[in-house]
Structures are given as C-alpha cells and as structure tokens.
Amino acid sequence: MAPPLRSRAALLAAATPLLLALGGVAAASAPAAAQSPAQQAQQQRMRDCNAEARRRSLSGEPRKSFMKTCLSRRGAAPGPAPAAGG
Length: 86
Hints:
Blueprint: H1 5-28, H2 37-55, H3 60-72
Helix pairs in contact: 2-3
C-alpha cells in the first residue's frame, strides 16, 4: 500500500535540497577544458575589464558603461574610461 500523500510530500521536501546541492557539485566540477577558444577569450576579456574597472574604482552607471565599451572591443586591452557625464 502506498504511503499517504502527506508522507510523500515530506520526503520530497526533505530530498529536494540534497538533490539540488548534488547537482551544483556536479556542475561545479565540470572541466573547464570543454570551453571553446572564443569562450575562453570572452572570459579573459571579462576578467581584464573587471580588473580595470576595479582599479579605476568605477561603480554604478560609469562602471556599466565602461564594461559595455570594454567588452565590445575585440582582442584589445582595456583602454581609457569613457567620459563620465550625461
């Protein structure tokens, strides 16, 4: 005989966080080598632009504008900050 619906719901509620945690561990352990060269270049550009924005102490709208400009450059090092103002 099947357990009452209330017990199934309790079991599901207890098991869900565990299953989600295990799924996160599996996703976190995926090899980085599976990335294409274009993805690797984009991630490096993101790291470089973030480092430059941090070095310049940018935040808010100026940071957003800088990141947009910086990330849109293909293969170029982060350049001067865009003019602030509006």
